[in-house]
Amino acid sequence: MTFANLGLSPELLLAVAARQYTLPTAVQTEAIPAVLAGQDVMALAQTGSGKTAAFALPLLQRLQQDMEEGSKQRKVKVLVLVPTRELSGQVGQTIETLAEHLPKKLKVAVIYGGASINPQMMHLRGGADVVISTPGRLLDLLDNNALSLQHVSTLVLDEADRLLDLGFADEIKRILEQLPAQRQNLFFSATFSPAVKKLALALLHEPKRIAIADLT
Ligand code: ADP
Ligand code: MG
Question: Is the ipTM of this complex over 0.85?
Protein backbone atom coordinates (compact mmCIF):
# COMPACT_ATOMS: atom_id res chain seq x y z
CA MET A 1 0.00 0.00 0.00
CA THR A 2 1.21 3.52 -0.82
CA PHE A 3 -0.07 6.93 0.24
CA ALA A 4 -1.12 7.59 -3.38
CA ASN A 5 -3.21 4.41 -3.38
CA LEU A 6 -5.04 5.63 -0.30
CA GLY A 7 -6.67 8.39 -2.32
CA LEU A 8 -4.78 11.42 -1.01
CA SER A 9 -4.43 14.58 -3.07
CA PRO A 10 -1.14 15.52 -4.82
CA GLU A 11 -0.59 18.39 -2.34
CA LEU A 12 -0.84 16.04 0.62
CA LEU A 13 1.42 13.49 -1.10
CA LEU A 14 3.98 16.26 -1.46
CA ALA A 15 3.80 17.03 2.26
CA VAL A 16 4.10 13.34 3.14
CA ALA A 17 7.17 13.00 0.91
CA ALA A 18 8.72 16.12 2.45
CA ARG A 19 8.40 14.49 5.87
CA GLN A 20 10.09 11.41 4.44
CA TYR A 21 7.18 9.12 5.07
CA THR A 22 7.81 6.55 2.37
CA LEU A 23 5.02 4.12 3.17
CA PRO A 24 1.89 4.46 5.28
CA THR A 25 1.95 2.70 8.64
CA ALA A 26 -0.59 -0.04 9.37
CA VAL A 27 -2.95 2.27 11.24
CA GLN A 28 -2.70 4.86 8.45
CA THR A 29 -3.47 2.26 5.78
CA GLU A 30 -6.64 1.27 7.61
CA ALA A 31 -7.79 4.63 8.92
CA ILE A 32 -7.24 6.95 5.95
CA PRO A 33 -9.86 5.42 3.59
CA ALA A 34 -12.40 5.14 6.41
CA VAL A 35 -11.93 8.77 7.49
CA LEU A 36 -12.13 9.93 3.87
CA ALA A 37 -15.42 8.04 3.57
CA GLY A 38 -16.81 9.85 6.62
CA GLN A 39 -16.93 6.75 8.82
CA ASP A 40 -16.39 6.69 12.58
CA VAL A 41 -13.13 5.03 13.58
CA MET A 42 -11.93 3.29 16.72
CA ALA A 43 -8.18 2.69 16.50
CA LEU A 44 -6.10 0.96 19.12
CA ALA A 45 -2.46 1.30 18.22
CA GLN A 46 0.67 1.74 20.22
CA THR A 47 2.57 4.96 20.66
CA GLY A 48 4.71 5.77 17.64
CA SER A 49 2.45 4.00 15.14
CA GLY A 50 1.61 7.20 13.23
CA LYS A 51 -1.85 7.95 14.57
CA THR A 52 -1.61 11.72 14.05
CA ALA A 53 -1.22 11.52 10.28
CA ALA A 54 -3.81 8.72 10.22
CA PHE A 55 -6.49 11.28 11.08
CA ALA A 56 -4.81 14.51 9.94
CA LEU A 57 -4.23 13.57 6.29
CA PRO A 58 -7.79 12.49 5.43
CA LEU A 59 -9.33 15.32 7.48
CA LEU A 60 -7.18 17.89 5.70
CA GLN A 61 -8.26 16.47 2.38
CA ARG A 62 -11.93 16.72 3.32
CA LEU A 63 -11.54 20.23 4.70
CA GLN A 64 -10.03 21.34 1.39
CA GLN A 65 -12.94 19.91 -0.53
CA ASP A 66 -15.49 21.60 1.70
CA MET A 67 -13.79 24.96 2.10
CA GLU A 68 -15.35 28.03 0.60
CA GLU A 69 -12.88 30.01 -1.45
CA GLY A 70 -11.82 33.27 0.18
CA SER A 71 -14.15 33.03 3.17
CA LYS A 72 -12.72 35.06 6.03
CA GLN A 73 -14.92 34.07 8.95
CA ARG A 74 -13.85 30.56 9.77
CA LYS A 75 -15.99 28.02 11.54
CA VAL A 76 -14.51 25.20 13.56
CA LYS A 77 -15.07 22.04 11.54
CA VAL A 78 -12.54 19.73 13.15
CA LEU A 79 -12.05 19.52 16.91
CA VAL A 80 -9.18 17.43 18.25
CA LEU A 81 -9.18 16.80 22.01
CA VAL A 82 -5.81 15.91 23.49
CA PRO A 83 -4.74 15.25 27.09
CA THR A 84 -1.76 17.59 27.43
CA ARG A 85 -0.34 20.92 26.37
CA GLU A 86 2.67 19.17 24.87
CA LEU A 87 0.52 16.94 22.70
CA SER A 88 -1.61 19.86 21.62
CA GLY A 89 1.50 21.56 20.26
CA GLN A 90 2.78 18.40 18.59
CA VAL A 91 -0.50 17.61 16.85
CA GLY A 92 -0.87 21.26 15.81
CA GLN A 93 2.57 21.29 14.30
CA THR A 94 2.03 18.03 12.42
CA ILE A 95 -1.24 19.33 10.99
CA GLU A 96 0.37 22.64 9.99
CA THR A 97 3.22 20.95 8.16
CA LEU A 98 0.98 18.42 6.42
CA ALA A 99 -1.24 21.32 5.28
CA GLU A 100 1.71 23.31 3.94
CA HIS A 101 1.07 22.79 0.22
CA LEU A 102 -2.71 23.00 0.26
CA PRO A 103 -4.11 25.67 -2.07
CA LYS A 104 -6.68 26.95 0.42
CA LYS A 105 -4.97 28.04 3.61
CA LEU A 106 -6.33 26.67 6.85
CA LYS A 107 -6.30 28.29 10.24
CA VAL A 108 -5.23 25.93 12.99
CA ALA A 109 -5.65 26.94 16.64
CA VAL A 110 -3.68 25.21 19.38
CA ILE A 111 -5.29 25.64 22.80
CA TYR A 112 -4.08 24.46 26.19
CA GLY A 113 -4.29 25.29 29.87
CA GLY A 114 -1.57 26.53 32.17
CA ALA A 115 -1.00 29.64 30.08
CA SER A 116 -2.76 32.98 29.83
CA ILE A 117 -6.18 32.70 28.17
CA ASN A 118 -6.19 36.14 26.55
CA PRO A 119 -3.79 35.46 23.66
CA GLN A 120 -5.78 32.31 22.89
CA MET A 121 -9.01 34.33 22.83
CA MET A 122 -7.39 36.86 20.50
CA HIS A 123 -6.13 34.10 18.23
CA LEU A 124 -9.64 32.66 17.98
CA ARG A 125 -11.12 35.94 16.79
CA GLY A 126 -12.14 35.43 13.20
CA GLY A 127 -12.50 31.73 13.91
CA ALA A 128 -10.39 28.71 13.04
CA ASP A 129 -10.88 25.69 10.81
CA VAL A 130 -9.19 23.21 13.10
CA VAL A 131 -8.96 23.44 16.89
CA ILE A 132 -6.64 21.23 18.90
CA SER A 133 -7.30 21.58 22.59
CA THR A 134 -7.05 20.19 26.06
CA PRO A 135 -10.55 19.79 27.55
CA GLY A 136 -10.44 22.21 30.50
CA ARG A 137 -9.20 25.24 28.59
CA LEU A 138 -11.65 24.55 25.76
CA LEU A 139 -14.51 24.74 28.28
CA ASP A 140 -13.14 28.02 29.64
CA LEU A 141 -13.07 29.45 26.12
CA LEU A 142 -16.60 28.20 25.45
CA ASP A 143 -17.78 29.83 28.68
CA ASN A 144 -16.22 33.07 27.41
CA ASN A 145 -17.93 32.70 24.02
CA ALA A 146 -14.50 32.73 22.41
CA LEU A 147 -15.53 30.04 19.95
CA SER A 148 -18.51 28.01 18.81
CA LEU A 149 -18.62 24.27 18.21
CA GLN A 150 -21.90 24.39 16.31
CA HIS A 151 -20.28 23.61 12.98
CA VAL A 152 -17.96 20.81 14.05
CA SER A 153 -18.28 17.95 11.58
CA THR A 154 -15.51 15.76 12.99
CA LEU A 155 -14.46 15.16 16.58
CA VAL A 156 -11.13 13.44 17.27
CA LEU A 157 -10.24 12.04 20.67
CA ASP A 158 -6.49 11.56 20.57
CA GLU A 159 -4.92 9.48 23.34
CA ALA A 160 -8.35 8.70 24.75
CA ASP A 161 -6.78 6.49 27.43
CA ARG A 162 -4.67 9.37 28.75
CA LEU A 163 -7.62 11.75 28.58
CA LEU A 164 -9.43 9.39 30.96
CA ASP A 165 -6.36 8.74 33.13
CA LEU A 166 -6.04 12.48 33.65
CA GLY A 167 -9.66 12.68 34.81
CA PHE A 168 -11.19 14.47 31.83
CA ALA A 169 -14.33 12.30 31.53
CA ASP A 170 -16.68 15.02 32.84
CA GLU A 171 -15.08 17.74 30.74
CA ILE A 172 -15.41 15.57 27.63
CA LYS A 173 -19.06 15.00 28.44
CA ARG A 174 -19.68 18.73 28.73
CA ILE A 175 -17.91 19.38 25.44
CA LEU A 176 -19.93 16.66 23.68
CA GLU A 177 -23.12 18.49 24.73
CA GLN A 178 -22.02 21.46 22.65
CA LEU A 179 -21.33 19.50 19.47
CA PRO A 180 -23.82 18.79 16.70
CA ALA A 181 -25.35 15.35 17.14
CA GLN A 182 -24.64 14.53 13.51
CA ARG A 183 -20.87 14.27 13.19
CA GLN A 184 -17.96 11.96 12.52
CA ASN A 185 -16.09 10.62 15.57
CA LEU A 186 -12.53 9.36 15.53
CA PHE A 187 -11.18 7.62 18.58
CA PHE A 188 -7.51 6.85 19.11
CA SER A 189 -5.97 5.08 22.06
CA ALA A 190 -2.77 3.21 22.81
CA THR A 191 -4.39 1.05 25.49
CA PHE A 192 -7.76 -0.52 26.10
CA SER A 193 -9.56 -0.63 29.45
CA PRO A 194 -13.22 -0.84 30.56
CA ALA A 195 -13.29 2.97 30.84
CA VAL A 196 -11.87 3.42 27.33
CA LYS A 197 -14.40 0.91 26.00
CA LYS A 198 -17.28 2.70 27.72
CA LEU A 199 -16.30 6.06 26.26
CA ALA A 200 -15.86 4.53 22.80
CA LEU A 201 -19.28 2.89 22.95
CA ALA A 202 -20.91 6.15 24.04
CA LEU A 203 -19.30 8.07 21.23
CA LEU A 204 -18.98 5.92 18.16
CA HIS A 205 -21.56 4.97 15.59
CA GLU A 206 -20.80 1.74 13.67
CA PRO A 207 -17.08 2.47 13.74
CA LYS A 208 -14.40 0.96 11.59
CA ARG A 209 -12.39 -0.98 14.16
CA ILE A 210 -8.64 -0.94 13.89
CA ALA A 211 -6.66 -2.87 16.44
CA ILE A 212 -2.97 -2.93 15.86
CA ALA A 213 -1.96 -2.76 19.51
CA ASP A 214 -1.40 -5.81 21.62
CA LEU A 215 -4.54 -5.75 23.69
CA THR A 216 -3.05 -6.96 26.94
P1 ADP B 1 1.35 8.04 17.63
O2 ADP B 1 0.35 9.15 17.70
O3 ADP B 1 0.76 6.76 17.14
O4 ADP B 1 2.13 7.87 18.90
P5 ADP B 1 2.74 9.82 15.84
O6 ADP B 1 1.65 10.23 14.96
O7 ADP B 1 3.16 10.78 16.91
O8 ADP B 1 2.43 8.41 16.52
O9 ADP B 1 3.99 9.42 14.94
C10 ADP B 1 5.18 8.90 15.50
C11 ADP B 1 6.38 9.27 14.62
O12 ADP B 1 6.31 8.58 13.39
C13 ADP B 1 6.43 10.74 14.27
O14 ADP B 1 7.76 11.18 14.34
C15 ADP B 1 5.93 10.78 12.84
O16 ADP B 1 6.45 11.89 12.14
C17 ADP B 1 6.41 9.46 12.29
N18 ADP B 1 5.59 8.92 11.19
C19 ADP B 1 4.25 8.95 11.08
N20 ADP B 1 3.83 8.31 9.97
C21 ADP B 1 4.94 7.85 9.36
C22 ADP B 1 5.17 7.11 8.14
N23 ADP B 1 4.17 6.72 7.36
N24 ADP B 1 6.45 6.82 7.82
C25 ADP B 1 7.47 7.21 8.62
N26 ADP B 1 7.33 7.91 9.76
C27 ADP B 1 6.08 8.23 10.14
MG1 MG C 1 -0.44 10.28 19.12
Answer: yes
**Please, are residues 43 and 23 in contact by the beta-carbon 8 Å criterion?**
no
Q: How far is the CA of 69 from the centre of ligand 2 (A)?
A: 31
Whether the CA torsion 188, 57, 151, 122 is positive or negative: it is positive
- Report the CATH number that the domain containing residue 109 is assigned in CATH: 3.40.50.300
Which pTM value belongs to this model? Answer: 0.96
Give me the number of domains the chain comprises: 1
Any domain includes 216: no
84, part of any domain: yes
**90-100 pLDDT per residue, tens:** 999 999 999 99
| 213: pLDDT strictly greater than 70 | no
Pocket (CB within 6 angstroms of ligand 1): 21, 23-25, 28, 45, 47-53
Atom number, ligand 1, closest to the C-alpha of residue 21: 24
Its domain, for residue 152, covers 4-211
Report how far ligand 1's centroid is from the alpha carbon of 38 (Å). Answer: 22
Report the C-alpha gap between 25 and 54 in whole angstroms. 8
